[in-house]
Input
Amino acid sequence: MNYSAAVFLSIGILLLLTIAWLAFSGTRRRPEAARKGGPERECLHISSLPQIKQALANSDFIYLEQQGYPALAKRIRKERRRIALNYLACLRVEFEKLLHLARMVAVMSPDVAVAQEVQGLRLNLEFSYRYYLIYFRLVSGIAPLEAIGGLSNMVSALTIRMETAMSELGEQAALGAELLPHNRGLDAGS
Amino acid sequence: MQLALCGILIYFRHFRKLPFFTAYVCLNIAQSLFLYLIYLHYGAYSHTAKLAGWWSEAITLLARIFATLEILHVVLIAYRGIWGLAWRLLATTSVVVFVCVVAASWGDAERALMRADRGYHLIFATALISCLALIRHYLIRVGKAYKVLLVGFCFYSCVKILLHTVLYDSLYQQRSQYTTIWQILVISPYLIVLLFWGAALLRPLPKMREQQAVLPTSLYRRISPEIHLQLQAINKKLMNFWKIEEPQQ
Output
């Protein structure tokens, strides 16, 4: 079998697998991370958890080591990693919520800009790549603890910002929908 | 099987909703009949039979494109913006894959027709899969019957790409054996597809939905960039995750 045949064979198999996946996986109704429930429930309280931020502060960890409690310090390190993973999951939930909103707006719009949609797709791919990169680094323990502490501040700030932005966007979308006649709602994704 | 499918299309009045798909099935029946008569009169390996076979195939392949576009249009008729995006995607994917196929098959005049047929199926399958991925991306629900029709088209094209690639290289030298195996392997998946199509079309087709666009375009143009800015901000933060410095104590 020559090189060209091998390429066509691989493409054929790949297409067959893709169509099987598209045929049997069904339509997703809600963002994947949000559907699982767990992180979303925790994310609802993310902006009102200063205790978690306190727990992530590096000073506590250093203090325990200096006082001669290595076992406790180890346990705290594990806890911190778990919290960081939860925050990362929250970030994903928020990202998917926004992406879902962008898709719904596009679906409801009679004219969609290709450039905008391509940008959305690119951002989604970028996010997925970075998310899994950080996720595996956290799971494998390569992540520096300082970064984990910083992450908590970052996610809290972002969550508050996005919650505000999303409510504004939701109001705008609802207003736009009300203004139009023959508003029959959206079937997609419901 | 094709006659049964045609009967289902007429009996359940699906031809009203899917006239091009019905025409495609009818053309397939006509092609079988036509080729049977040609083979009977001129012989299966004659030059006339070969010409008739390829020309009739070209016509049915063209009808296949129209039938697929019709189904996609029915599925996306309620989403004008997404339909606009879908046909652009179909056109772009087709052109890109066409250029790739021509570049990969260039300079092989002996197998030109076989390569052209494989190229067609590759373009068709890739464009259709891209469109189905787009539909999935926007969480648009596709009626089961339409989904079966589209997946059937795509499955058959994928099988033909594989058969063209594997069978031609390994068996073409033994002509009689090649023809028999080719016929069996091409007809079997097509029969499976017809079976699934028939089963899917035994029920009434989903009702055509009204236009779902409820937002003015200006709102989309205003909201969409804002959302993307937010998404970009999250991405940037994620990118700088490792660069975050610990706050000064």
User: Anything to note?
Assistant: Chain A touches chain B through 81 residues (CB under 8 Å).
